Amino acid sequence: MNEIVVKLKQGETMLYPTDTILGLGCDAKNEAAIEKIYQIKNRPSSKSLIILVDSPKMLQDIVEVPELAWDLIDLNEKPITIIYDNPKGLPKSLVAEDNTIAIRLTEDLFCKKIIGKLGGPIVSTSANLSGEPSPKVFSEVNPSILERVDFYPEEIKTFVPQFTASTIIKLGLDNEVKVIRG
Which residue range or ranges hold the YrdC-like domain (predicted)? Predict the structure, then answer.
């Protein structure tokens, strides 16, 4: 685990198991690493990336969390990503044009350990080229991704997803809930 964190702190990108599907990630505070993620995926920079946090405190350090968000997190049986307004302390490349950020409070032990040792959030985006289906297991990962990503932990080869991609919800004015991805 320490080796993974050292690599992330050096700006490397990783393919890794998450609480949903296989993910591509990096240190969410490293602008150069974030740019590499966009390049690996051939993803337009206008399409935002999700970040993972390991605790309510880390979430609150980045955004103001409305009470409704806590209710949604507590009540959902599967991982949920919520789009929040006005993030602070993150590179501009992670923040959408409307000054929002998509964040998931992960329950996955592997992800929590990495985030905890790193001391900050990590990027989490599906391990596919932009526009292609997300791979469910390691053998489905596009060879181009494997060639471009800096490293992946051995655990990924036996990864079996527990869920599909997370539900993404945007909270609007007056506690309006808009499902972006169900």
Answer: 1-182
